[in-house]
């Protein structure tokens, strides 16, 4: 749909091709937008869907899942999963 409304480029075939050594396809702006902006939004919605699924299908609330590893009888794992959870947003 978007290509249908894009204006035609008259000199498209007369322009020289890009220089692989100098022109890059991925730059810092693209990486920042991809990982810091879109990645954080995807991570938030993935966690939201996980906690929603666990609540609706299994009846396990978010407070029972989030940072409650001692309640499930698992020792020493809490700091590892806390590390994973916090660095997921960085």
Explain this structure:
- This protein has 90 residues and is mainly α.
- The protein has a domain at 35-90.
- The protein is 54% helix and 0% strand.
- It is elongated.
Summary?
The protein has 90 residues and is mainly α. The protein has helices at 2-5, 28-58, 62-65, 78-87.
Q: What topology emerges from the helices and strands here?
A:
Blueprint: H1 2-5, H2 28-58, H3 62-65, H4 78-87
Q: Which structural class best describes the helix and strand composition? A: mainly alpha
Largest sheet: none
| First-last Cα distance | 34 Å
As a percent range, the share of strand residues is: under 5%
Shape field: elongated
From N to C, what is the helix and strand string? HHHH
Residue stretches low in confidence (pLDDT < 50, at least 5 long) are none
Q: Quick check: average pLDDT?
A: 80
Computed CA radius of gyration, to the nearest angstrom: 23 Å
Helical amount among residues, as a percent range? 40-55%
- Quaternary status of these chains? single chain
Number of strands: 0
Task: Give me the number of helical elements.
Answer: 4
List keywords for this structure.
about 90 residues, single chain, mainly alpha
């Amino acid at each position: 749909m978007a290509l249908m409304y894009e204006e035609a480029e008259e000199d498209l075939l007369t322009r020289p091709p890009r220089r692989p050594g100098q022109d890059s396809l991925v730059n810092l702006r693209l990486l920042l937008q991809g990982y810091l902006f879109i990645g954080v939004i995807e991570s938030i919605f993935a966690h939201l869907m996980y906690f929603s699924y666990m609540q609706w299908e299994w009846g396990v609330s978010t407070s029972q899942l989030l940072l409650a590893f001692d309640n499930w009888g698992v020792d020493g794992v809490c700091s590892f999963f806390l590390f994973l959870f916090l660095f997921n947003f960085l």
